[in-house]
Write a structure and sequence with these properties.
The protein has no helices and three strands. By secondary structure, it is mostly beta strands. It has a domain of 38 residues.
């Protein structure tokens, strides 16, 4: 909050990945905030790749 106070409100998050070429995963991290000053939702794109390319 602008005055420095902390407000806790109920929320739920989920992340979903889709496998792609070379072991790369792409997806979204979605959060629903059910009440309070920040009520609404947030979507953040995600990606993850292996340190080494998998051997086929």
């Amino acid at each position: 909050m602008p005055d420095g106070t902390i407000e806790y409100n109920p929320a739920k998050s989920i992340s979903v990945y889709t496998p792609g070429d070379y072991g790369i995963l792409t997806g979204v991290f979605h959060t629903n905030i059910y009440s309070g000053a920040c009520k609404g939702n947030v979507d953040m794109p995600l990606s993850a790749k292996p340190v080494a390319v998998p051997v086929s």
